[in-house]
Design brief:
The structure is a single chain. The chain folds into 2 domains: about 110 residues, Phosphorylase Kinase, domain 1 (2-Layer Sandwich); about 220 residues, Transferase(Phosphotransferase) domain 1 (Transferase(Phosphotransferase), domain 1, Orthogonal Bundle), CATH 1.10.510. About 40% of the residues are buried. β2 and β3 form a beta hairpin. The two termini are about 30 Å apart. The strands form 4 sheets. The chain has a 6-stranded mixed beta sheet, with helices on both faces. A two-stranded antiparallel ribbon has the order 7-10. It has 11 helices and 12 strands. α5 runs antiparallel to α7 and α7 runs antiparallel to α10. It is α+β, with helices and mostly antiparallel strands.
Length: about 400
């Protein structure tokens, strides 16, 4: 695949002659403003040499989304906005609403240098990989300072919308484990390619679901190639979403392959509890879900009070406890103590084979106070600012 970056500017390694002796030296030009620097850093148009992707014209995507009408917007994130559009299934040419194949069109902020970097990273990784648990990138557009990406449309949206948002479709235990297993399979593939990829932004909003609740990882804007030459980690600027980023990464800027495993453990904890990793509406000791839940995960009785009440106890207790034990391993403070994603995947496949036992009818049991029943009310997600653009980078 070709390089995603614009070609370097040619240079003949010459410099202007020095002024003659005795002539005044001309004053240096004023330094460019921040906006001028950003504009100069973003080429107006570009093309990426990759046989797997279609290069769309901006006019085509404007037509496919009806000029990016607000009622076609699917969501908004750190990169920009995502719109629903329609294209011909064979030619990928724009088509009328309801005709042809639905797609998701991600449109960046045209003045964002960071947006361009994330756009390039997405093309670099998703243009290279094809896997059932990675969202499929169909094409891109880089024209007139506009850079866009076109993906397959995922009918059921994000895992986040099902776990936390009011009115989201409630999902039973077996589907939750199916989602976790699919996401684990996608992450394991990234970690075991010839050139290891560290995802760096594993969270519920980046797990998309198709009509059959098959999970696919999306948003590769922060993905990075893993360590080489025998190194254990990559040193980089700390970016990501607070709560999901591994402690060693936040503290040192060292990102390990197993830093992704920590984020996976956090999402798995959200899946079984139905609670956000961070929620300012919860009591002080419960704001950080990982810190608050960790002591209860190894205790079967305490674990039952952590489980999402919307499951209505319809889950195999053996499987729930095995999942909790897996979470504990994934969120170990020391990355060397965490399992790799292949081991995580094997554990989840075993958990998925554990079935419910018939239960005897029991009387209503009083639940102790828990964050599921916090008097502040509202949706279970609480403060959504932790998952939005404001928390994208530290």
């Amino acid at each position: 695949m070709g390089n995603c970056c614009p070609p370097p500017v040619a240079s003949n390694n010459t410099r202007p002659p020095s002024p003659a002796y005795g002539e005044p030296t001309p004053p240096p030009p004023p330094p460019p403003t921040a906006s001028e620097q950003a504009a100069a850093a973003i080429p107006p148009s570009g093309e990426i040499q990759t046989p797997n992707l279609k290069m769309f014209a901006f006019a085509e995507l404007r037509s496919a989304t009806r000029n990016f009408r607000p009622d076609t917007m699917l969501g908004e994130g750190g990169f920009g906005r995502v719109f629903k559009g329609y294209v011909d299934a064979e030619t990928l040419a724009p088509s009328r609403v309801g005709v042809g194949m639905p797609v998701a069109v991600k449109k960046s902020n045209p003045d964002s240098e960071q947006g361009l970097k994330e756009w390039q990273a997405e093309v670099k990784f998703l243009g290279k990989f094809s896997h059932p648990n990675l969202v499929k990138l169909l094409g891109y557009c880089w024209e007139e300072r506009q850079f866009l990406l076109v993906y397959e449309y995922m009918q059921r949206g994000s895992l986040e919308s099902h776990l936390f948002r009011k009115g989201g479709e409630q999902i039973p235990w077996d589907i939750r484990i199916k989602i976790a297993t699919g996401a684990a399979r996608g992450l394991a593939m990234l970690h075991t390619t010839e050139k290891t990829v560290i995802y760096r932004d594993f969270k519920a909003s980046n797990i998309l679901l198709d009509g059959e609740f098959n999970a696919k990882l999306s948003d590769f804007g922060l993905a990075k190639l893993g360590p080489v030459d025998g190194n254990s980690h990559v040193t980089t600027k700390v970016v990501g979403t607070y709560g999901y980023a591994a402690p060693e990464y936040i503290a040192t800027g060292h990102v390990y392959v197993k830093s992704d495993v920590y984020g996976f453990g956090v999402v798995l904890l959200e899946i079984i509890t139905g609670l956000r990793v961070l929620d300012l509406n919860r009591p002080t000791k419960q704001i950080n879900l990982v810190d608050w839940a960790r002591p209860s995960l190894s205790n079967k009785k305490k674990l039952s009070k952590l489980m999402d009440p919307r499951l209505e106890d319809e889950y195999p207790s053996k499987a729930a406890f095995a999942t909790a034990e897996l979470i504990v391993k994934c969120i170990e403070p020391d990355p060397k103590s965490r399992p790799d994603m292949e081991e995580v995947l094997r554990n989840l496949e075993e958990i998925s084979r554990v079935k419910m036992r018939p239960k005897k009818q029991k009387g209503h049991q009083h639940r102790m106070s828990s964050p599921h029943h916090h008097p502040s009310g509202g949706d279970r997600g609480g403060a959504t600012r932790h998952n939005g653009k404001a928390t994208r980078s530290y």
